[in-house]
Design a protein that fits this description.
heterodimer; A: 119 residues; mainly alpha; Methane Monooxygenase Hydroxylase, Chain G, domain 1; 5 helices; 67% helix; 0% strand; B: 479 residues; two-stranded antiparallel sheet; globular
């Protein structure tokens, strides 16, 4: 019974290993230029303490919108992955088509400069 | 599920529109400023290709994709109207976008996506599919309504349309949820079957029918759900107003007919009188309020409400004759109204200057050709014999009389007489008032000429030789 969970254990070890290795590598080789903003909790360019009723830059909304779009589209991959075995090649090409459509949107957003903060 | 259940031909027009829409969108950042209008022509070619692909679609009648998608004559005829609307709108907007310095080809993508949504609405055999098409259409149209981003009125238009549109979408969803609760299905034929059995909670079904009716009445802008129309139509860019006054309206009626005559015919005693009242109220309100509008876009907005009222008369007839008359009227109305809005686009200046009826004074002596074409559209909208408007109204009132809706027909004729006042006042301005503008900077480029020729020729053809199209709508109305 317990043996069936061995792949999950291996997966856990792989995930933990990958996480550790990439953290260590970026610590060892990455450039470090700390400043007060970067070291603040939840580093996102906002002061975490104070009134929440301030004006946000409209750029946040653009990023949030793009994030939501691509996130929701990624969610569609999960049910597909569950029934992938039954769908066979049909499912593969269907999802390929779906991803190509997302890719088109991504290229559009990229070329329009929606992914650049400073413009 | 396997590849055999896929029928590309049955969805080909929708597919063509979506693909061309995506191509236009992705190509936009890669194309230089000078060549942007080429993408407009690409979108136009897309609508023509979709029109051609109606032929293989028509050869694949039946229900496809787990009965979600239905292809019949009704669907093919409506798709033809939608594609015609999209093609004429693209032609009208090309010069407009350049003039307003809004030359963003995303406009054409949005238009193609909206049209794809309309095709889905006409072809869906399932309430959830209808909702999907409705949202694809609506979201693209909200964006187009606010396309003049720097203009406050355009913003107001988009926001009002968005808020009320999402409100009505909520009604539609609530209706779907209730009908699913009552019958256990969202398929129109399954609902119709379930309603014929006696074990149904009829109050739940009626409530659901009422909610769906309210939502669609919002979309087609009939009284008392018309209040958003004038503000939205006035603020939106003129070609978009033209599109909104015919496209979503035709798609909304397509769904109304399909849903109520396929799924709910057995409870007609419960919704029939509601349609009667909606039709009467819409014709009276639209035509009477249009009389006092100084702004031609607002005037045409109320006129579009009134025309929705005439189609609602055909709906109240609940007969095949009525559906056929409504289909004919939708085609006729689309052609003449798009033509009228193309003329408003031509005469108006940058940032919606010169859109009052009095601004048309003296057009007859300065630009006789344009004045003659606009007169044709106005006469057709009023319903003068020999034009498409007359033939359409005639068929609708005949269908109403055959279904013993005598009072509705009388109200229709009386309000048509009222409508002559405001349509003819445009003609009076053009021919009988002194010009206070030279109309010298009115440019008429090729695409606009093309749009005017199509709509004027269609208006005359449907008015003088309606038989062939009427035969088509008669077969399309049969179930």
């Amino acid at each position: 019974m317990l043996e069936t969970w061995v792949p999950v254990l291996i997966f856990f070890i792989l995930v933990a290993g990958f996480g550790t290795v990439s953290l260590v590598l970026s610590y060892a080789f990455g450039p470090k230029k700390p400043d007060a903003r970067k070291l603040s909790p939840y580093e996102c360019g906002m002061r975490p303490i104070g009134s929440a009723r301030e004006r946000f830059s409209v750029k946040f909304y653009l990023v949030a919108m793009l994030f939501l779009l691509f996130d929701i589209e990624a969610v569609f991959l999960f049910p597909w992955a569950v029934v992938y075995r039954d769908l066979k090649l049909f499912g593969f090409f269907e999802m390929l088509l779906f991803i190509v459509v997302i890719l088109a949107g991504y290229i559009y957003a990229w070329k329009k400069g929606a992914l650049e903060w400073e413009r | 599920m396997n590849l055999a259940t896929i029928n590309i031909a049955a969805i080909l027009p929708t597919l063509v529109l979506s693909v061309v829409g995506i191509v236009v969108m992705v190509a936009e950042p890669f194309v230089g400023e000078q060549k942007k209008s080429n993408l407009g022509w690409l979108a136009f070619a897309g609508t023509l290709a979709a029109m051609l692909s109606l032929v293989p679609m028509a050869n694949n009648r039946g229900q496809w994709y787990s009965n979600l998608w239905i292809v019949d004559d009704y669907d093919v005829f409506l798709d033809f109207i939608f594609l015609l609307i999209a093609a004429i709108t693209i032609l009208t907007s090309m010069d407009f976008l350049r003039r307003e310095e809004l030359n963003h080809p995303e406009f054409y993508s949005l238009l193609l996506f909206a049209t794809a949504g309309m095709l889905m609405m006409a072809a869906s055999n399932e309430l959830v599919m209808v909702f999907l098409g409705l949202e694809i259409l609506s979201i693209a149209t909200y964006v187009m309504a606010g396309f003049r981003r720097a203009d406050l009125k355009s913003n107001e238009s988009a926001l009002k349309y968005f808020l009320l549109g999402s409100f009505s979408s909520a009604f539609f969803l609530y209706g779907i949820a209730l009908i699913f609760g009552a019958t256990g299905s969202t398929n129109l034929l399954a609902i119709a079957d379930a309603l014929r059995s006696s074990k149904i909670q009829i109050s739940l079904v009626s409530l659901s029918a009422a909610l769906i009716l309210i939502a669609l009445c919002f979309k087609v802008a009939v009284a008392p759900f018309h209040v958003w129309t004038p503000d939205v139509y006035e603020g939106a860019p003129t070609p978009v107003t033209g599109f909104m006054s015919v496209g979503p309206k035709a798609a909304g009626f397509a769904v109304l007919f399909r849903v109520f005559l396929t799924a709910f015919p057995s409870i007609e005693d419960r919704w029939g009188s509601a349609i009667w009242m909606v039709a009467a109220l819409t014709m009276i309100l639209g035509n009477v309020i249009a009389v006092v509008q100084p702004n031609i876009k607002r005037m045409l907005a109320y006129s579009s409400i009134a025309h929705a009222g005439y189609v609602a008369v055909a709906f109240a007839a609940t007969s095949d004759r009525g559906v056929s008359a409504a289909l004919f009227y939708l085609l006729a109305y689309s052609l003449m109204n798009l033509g009228a809005f193309a003329m408003v686009t031509i005469i108006s200046r940058k940032e919606d200057k010169l859109v009052n009826v009095t601004d048309y004074a003296g057009l007859g002596s300065k630009r006789p050709g344009l004045a003659a074409v606009l007169s044709l559209f106005m006469l057709s909208l009023a319903g003068v014999p020999g034009t498409a408007g007359f033939a359409g109204k005639f068929f609708i009132f005949r269908a109403a009389l055959e279904s013993r809706l005598v009072w509705l027909a009388i109200i229709g004729v009386v309000t048509t007489v009222i409508s002559f006042y405001y349509y003819l006042s445009v003609i009076v301005q053009m021919y009988m008032r002194e010009p206070h503008d030279e109309f010298s900077d009115v440019r008429l480029c090729g695409s606009l000429k093309f749009a005017l020729v199509i709509s004027a020729a269609g208006t005359l053809y449907l008015g003088l030789l309606p038989t062939r199209v009427l035969d088509w709508t008669t077969t399309a109305a049969l179930r």
